[in-house]
Specification:
- This protein is of the alpha+beta class.
- 43% of the residues lie in helices and 18% in strands.
- It contains 10 helices and 8 strands.
- α5 packs antiparallel against α10 and α7 packs across α9.
Length: 265
């Protein structure tokens, strides 16, 4: 007798289900119960329980005293081997330490990953600012930060048009959500060589960013200084310092023997 596969959506593979469980953890959901994981992943509790137990045994997840799960040290250790992260951290960190020390602002290097910017190296002495803005591994929309605007301004035209076509997420009342206005802003960033934003991601925060280029002149990252708009955020003073930091990293990338895996430094 011939059997037929069940109708409807195909069953998700074990790998798909495992990845969907890991994906439910983010910066706002660092510790989750089994029922939380089930709800956020769309998987039955019994399936979640089975896969989570295997992830816990391997060390990808850790179980707290209240029975809640969080990302495990072994998964974190594996993640630090990602060449695009580790090589950037090695090259950029000393320059960011210097920038943060000179400006009292948060200093960060962002790279573009698809339609988002990704923080790969970060220095900040202000814990409140660090908690609310960014840290290594944080993903942010390109149109809402100074670094994102620099990265988008130097991305290919197809991606620019795709993002400007919207919808553009409104993070604050100051976020640019009009595609035509965003295109004009990107042209200004290319013309001036840096980006300055006020309150576009969080109220009371400002950002200044400049591009980092590889040996062929292509923009591969953006350096930013982020500060409270009421005190340390002084664009006239900060722009030259941010640009100088970006140029210093660019020069290091062009030094023989320096190479960032995966971006053609």
């Amino acid at each position: 007798m011939t059997t037929h596969p069940p109708t409807g959506a195909p069953e998700r593979s074990v790998v798909d289900r495992t990845l969907s469980i890991l994906a439910v953890f983010d910066r706002d959901n660092r510790s989750l119960s089994l029922s939380d994981i089930s709800r956020r992943s769309g998987l039955p509790v019994a399936t979640v329980h089975r896969i989570v137990n295997k992830l816990h045994t391997w060390g990808a997840l850790e179980r707290g005293i209240e029975g809640r799960y969080s990302i495990g040290l072994r998964l974190w250790e594996t993640g630090t081997l990602a060449p695009r992260w580790s090589s950037w951290a090695d090259v950029a960190q000393p320059h960011l330490v210097a920038l943060a020390g000179q400006t009292s602002a948060a200093a960060v290097v962002m790279i573009r990953d698809g339609s988002e910017s990704l923080s790969v190296s970060y220095v900040c002495d202000d814990q409140a600012l660090a908690a609310r803005w960014s840290s290594p591994g944080c993903r942010l929309p390109l149109h809402a930060t100074a670094a994102g605007l620099v990265l988008l301004a130097h991305a290919d035209e197809h991606l620019q048009n795709e993002i400007c076509a919207g919808p553009l997420q409104r993070c604050t009342v100051a976020t640019t959500t009009d595609g035509a206005a965003l295109l004009r802003h990107l042209a200004k960033v290319r013309r001036e060589g840096h980006a300055v934003v006020y309150n576009t991601l969080h109220e009371g925060r400002g950002g200044i960013s400049a591009p980092v280029r590889n040996s062929r002149g292509a923009v591969v990252a953006a350096v930013s200084a982020v500060a409270n708009t009421t005190d340390a955020f002084q664009p006239r003073k900060l722009v030259p310092q941010v640009v100088a930091t970006a140029e210093a990293i660019t020069q290091q990338l062009r030094t023989p023997g320096t190479r960032l895996t995966g971006i053609g430094a």
